[in-house]
Amino acid sequence: MRTTSDAGQAVPSGETALGIYVYGIVPADVAVTDTAKGVGDPPAKVHLVRYRDLAALASDVDVSQPLGRPEDLLAHEQLLDGAAKEAPVLPFRFGAVLQTEQAVEEELLAPYHDEFAAQLAEFEGRAQFVAKGRYREPAILREVLADDARAAGFRDELAGRPAGDPAARNLQIRLGEIINAAIDGKRTADTRQLGDVVAPYCVASNVREPSHELDAAHVALLVDTDRVADLEHALGELAGTWAGRVELRLLGPMAVYDFVSARTPGG
Amino acid sequence: MTVTQTAGGAAAGPQPTGLADVIDTILDKGLVIDAYVRVSLVGIELLTVDARIVIASVDTYLRFAEAVGRLNIEDNKETLPELVGDIEESGASSKAKGAVRGALDAAGEKFGRGGDAEPVPQRRRRHADDE
To answer: ipTM value of the model?
Structure first.
């Protein structure tokens, strides 16, 4: 396989290097504007591959080039989240490529039409949000040191050591281990509290794995759009309760990445 | 980096979505096309790393221990008034002023997202767009 640093070079003639990148599935009455940008460099033009009342958001992609620059990731996300503001969308994970438009229609849309149509109907008028809390490190460390006498003891012992003391390393590791475990426990409790706060306003929720060691909560929420204001209000109050301790963000509305279900064929 | 969520026009508030947030979502969630199509799926080289998983390691522990050490230094500095502003700037203060600013941040976040709930209604035709 040949790679070149010159982007946009012609691919060797005689080889089929084009594939169809699939972003997600939407109702067929969605219109794609000319300014919609897809993955690739330069960004590909996005079009629809329709089948009955369904359509796949798709673009041509050069499969001889690796994919996954930040611009590609953002294009995938922005296209789907933009579409999700106007219509229900079943988002695909990044990197789904089929050989031809015909394959998209005949192997994806046609055989799974009923399942996709049912899911689109389920997500009509709903959107996903992600609530993401991040501990403010000094505040959470002070909490742990105040709660845990062992941690405070190691801290004091370390403070008395000269710089570069080799024995200090073991003390540091033990202190860090205690802190990490304590933050784990706080994360579990705070995630549960957040779940309780948002539960009245959500159709469903999905607790995600922490993506950072200072994550306080990382939860995807499926929300009816007429409850979004209530959700924001409730989370605003929680953010006030957590002020100085947890930085709470609400991301969205976005496509329903956490709530689409991929059943196995025939399942 | 343009982010669709800021289109509401609210003045304040940090960008709600960055690359890290996007990676958490689109590499780890969403329908997997393999579950639906095998015959004509095209393998393509993905540059992206696998979704990140937090695994605590000795490095993590040492980093926390160092952060505790910095905490001690900052606590000592707090007795010097001319340095307090600097500490608050770093978000390190647990004093009331820091707490209030945290609440304002949260409010800004909330208002920053206010415009999102009102997409332009499209009676019959819907538009999938990136902006």
So the answer is: 0.79
